[in-house]
Amino acid sequence: MKNEEVSSSGSLPWPAIVDRYRTHRDKGHDGALAGALEGLEILATEIANGPLSSALFGWTSMFDLCIQQTDTAPASGPYLRVRPVSTGCVEFRYIDTAVPERQWHREVPPEAVLPRFRTFLEQLHWVG
From what superkingdom does this record's organism come (predicted)? Predict the structure, then answer.
């Protein structure tokens, strides 16, 4: 994968994250997982190609996309984890506490990933 330079904090450049999801898609995942992975690729592409690319920092873990506001070590503070679910949906989970029951989370179909992400940004005032 190109653009795979990890920052000193551990975040990846957004083009590298997009490449990672394209690679997953090209591996021929089928069924529900394929749709959910496409939703993650669309989200990563939206961030990479816009002003959010310099305001948000991301990394991946298996199929999960993790996003935080600061370029610090992954998971060193609150972050948003976006992951494919076996049902074909995409789960958004804001990890700001170690208690899963207290974490904000939503599941949406792949076509609703961008609107859900935009609403999340607005609700938490992550970017101006």
Answer: Bacteria
- Tokens coding 85: 């679910």
Torsion from C-alpha of 104, 116, 85, 99, nearest 10 degrees:
-10
User: pTM of the prediction?
Assistant: 0.88
Nearest CA to 110 out of 79, 87, 93, 76 is that of 87
- The count of C-alpha atoms lying within 13 angstroms of the C-alpha of 100, restricted to the half-sphere facing its C-beta, is 2
- Let me know if residue 3 belongs to a domain: no
Q: Note whether residue 54 is domain-resident.
A: yes
Residue 106 to residue 122: CA distance in whole angstroms: 15
